[in-house]
Amino acid sequence: MTAEAPVHHPLVSFACSLLPLLVAMGCATTPDDPFDRAGDAVRGHVFVDRDGDGERDENERGVAGVAVSDGEQVTWTDRQGRWALPARDRADYFVIKPTGMRTPLDANGLPRFYYLQRKDGSPRNLEHRGLAATGAPPRQLDFPLYPQEETSPFRVLVVGDPQPRTLEQVDHFAHDILPELAASDAAFGVSLGDIVHDDLALFPPMIEAIGLVGIPWFHVFGNHDMNFDALDRETAGATFERFFGPRNFAFEYADVHFIVLDNIDFRPASEDEPVGYRGGLTERTLRFIENYLEGVPRDEQIVFMMHIPLVGDERNQVPQRDRLFEILAEHEHHWSISAHTHTQSHRFVEMGNGTHHHWNSSTASGSWWRGRRDEVGIPHTTMRDGSPNGYSIVTFDGADYSIRFKAARRPADHQIEIGAPAEVVSGSRREIHANVFAGSERSRVEVRVRDGSPRSEVGDEGWRPLERTLTVDPAFRALRRRELDALAADERSLPNPNPSQHLWRGELHFDLEPGSYWIEVRSRDMFGQVDIARRVVRVVEAAEARAPDAEAPTQAR
After folding, report:
1. For position 82, what pLDDT does the model report?
2. Residue 542 maps to which CATH number?
3. What integer pLDDT is reported at residue 416 of this predicted model?
4. 282 and 306 in contact (C-beta within 8 Å)?
5. Quick check: is 206 in a domain?
6. What does the pLDDT read at residue 15?
7. pLDDT for residue 459
8. In angstroms, how far is CA 322 from the centroid of its own chain?
9. Is residue 505 part of a domain?
10. Which pLDDT belongs to residue 212?
11. DSSP annotation of 111
């Protein structure tokens, strides 16, 4: 952090404006410190842009206590809204949007809160154009802000991996996901990387499509958003930066602190290895996090948004997470979000002073837009852990939060799928499975069998627990097998299944008279949200049972 980390908390900012002699509270000691002293620096103001022209006029006041960064160092504006940071040939200068303010938005809802300094610009031989040369760093750089009301609770739309590889798949995303998002009252949205699938020429149609949602939208850098012909990590995001801005930044909304991270460790091609990547944070990124969090109150919520999960296999994890947890040691409320795996899971990572919740989100593209096409021509693209493609809605209320998964073009209560036979023999025992799409080890999942009389609200009688099992969803495996021989020429087969993190199993004893019954599964998740799914089972005498090859699929899709 710069030596003159001025005011951050609003009360301190107010006190400084009234009592400039209280140097110990963090105010600059004199009007020309640090802005008029010698030194090569970029200086500017953060101000309220009253006339909306993006330029600071004499009657437009500065905003005190706002964080500004160059991608590593962080400073806070003084009582006049002034800031200064070292001048560099390559730097990402940006304002960290404070609570109660917004930054400029372009016509597609992309926040414009930054100046990307690139003296020489991006390499000119990249297939997809990067950033133009800026020349020397600017001497004066002002950031406009606009007041807006921000209250809790508020909602955020979270979309993982839209990942179209063709313009047709851009249309899949637009028709499968976007109409629901446009009806939301969310404060803003975020895409968790892999905005496209390697073809960076698809950025513009994706931006235009998401812009129709009509709310501010932030984007995380993903491994399929890279310039694959780059020679190093710095320039691997050149085209992404041209469209979306910095790969590491932060913003605040209603006293929640959102920190967006580039955790794609780009590996250029060599004689022995093709171009690739690993998960990882740079030392510069870690210093940015540390510097910013020094000014964040310890009791306010911190949310990290990244592409590759913190926890996973050797390639798909963040080796520096212990360092990240050290930085977080003094903060009470923090958790993180990723995508990338095309599955959905919750992980709980023990750290020195508690547990860090890491949520690996579902993806909009599901299994990369694979599977049979439905009646409107969109692949069902069921994810390889058995859950449907979709998005999520996160609700924030002070230091509390909750996550709600939403399957694309399905009812809001479509949260569980039951894997069970359509017909059983009276007196037999059969295994069932329940895929609770957003479930975790902290979910309680129960099952019961009941008839339809009396017709009443679901009570608490007859429920017994199911056991969580880390295995492949049998329904997904069966679905994939059925489709392999039925795919059309323009359809792609589903990928191999992955063990599901949200699958429960149990054995039911159908000691029942012949007839039709409900199998009911009830889930209560880590946020206290209760969901119930039902499936009809028909109980028959042994002599009336259908032949095995006539049995219905174990799970409807």
Report:
1. 98
2. 2.60.40.10
3. 98
4. no
5. no
6. 40
7. 65
8. 21
9. yes
10. 98
11. B
* Interaxial angle between packed helices 167-176 and 203-211, expressed in degrees from 0 to 180 and rounded to the nearest 10: 20
Write the CB contacts of 283 (distance below 8 Å, at least 6 apart in sequence): none
Question: What is the total count of domains within the chain?
Answer: 2
In contact, 26 and 12? CB cutoff 8 Å? yes
Residue 500 lies in a domain: yes
Q: What is the distance between the alpha carbons of residues 191 and 207, in angstroms, rounded to a whole number?
A: 11
- pLDDT digits over 36-71, tens only? 543 699 999 999 999 999 999 999 999 999 999 999
Q: What is the DSSP letter of 332?
A: S
User: In the structure encoding, which two tokens stand for residue 253, read together?
Assistant: 């909304």
Cα 436 vs. chain centroid, distance in angstroms?
20
Tokens standing for residue 152? 């809790």
CA atoms within 13 A on the CB side of 435: 27
- What average pLDDT is seen over the chain? 91
DSSP annotation of 161 reads: -
Residues 246 and 218: their CA atoms lie apart, in Å, by 11
- Give the pLDDT confidence score for residue 312 in this predicted structure: 80
| Burial classification of residue 122, based on how many CB atoms lie within 10 Å of its CB (0-12 exposed, 13-18 middle, 19 or more buried) | buried
Single-letter residue type at 189: G
pLDDT at 39: 63
Give the gyration radius of the chain's Cα atoms.
26
Pairwise CA distance, residues 91 & 137, whole Å: 9
152 in any annotated domain: no
Give the burial string for 93-106 (b: 16+ CB within 10 Å, else e).
bbbbbbebbbbebe
Range of the domain at 469: 416-550
For the chain, list residues with pLDDT below 50.
1-32, 37-38, 456, 549-557
> Cα–Cα distances in Å, from 245 out to 21, 198, 260, 319?
39, 18, 12, 25
Q: Are 221 and 237 contacting, i.e. CB atoms less than 8 angstroms apart?
A: yes
pLDDT at 457: 53
Query: How many whole angstroms separate alpha carbon 47 and alpha carbon 38?
Result: 24
Give the DSSP H/E element, type plus range, for residue 292: helix 283-293
H or E element at residue 182: helix 178-182
List Cα–Cα distances, 259 to 37, 67, 162, 375, in angstroms.
32, 13, 21, 40
- Give the burial class of 548: count Cβ atoms within 10 A of its Cβ; 0-12 exposed, 13-18 middle, 19 or more buried: exposed
| Apex 525 CA angle, 524 and 527, nearest 5 | 115
Answer for the pair 420, 554: CB distance below 8 angstroms, yes or no: yes
Boundary residue ending a domain (115, 147, 179) = 147
The last residue of one of the domains, among 122, 147, 172, is 147
Residue 474, helix vs strand vs coil: helix
Contact status, residue 538 vs residue 423, Cβ threshold 8 Å: yes
Q: Where does residue 339 rank: exposed (0-12), middle (13-18), buried (19+ CB within 10 A)? A: buried
Specify which residues 41 forms β-bridges with: 86
Contacts 24+ apart (CB under 8 A), 18-25: 20/79
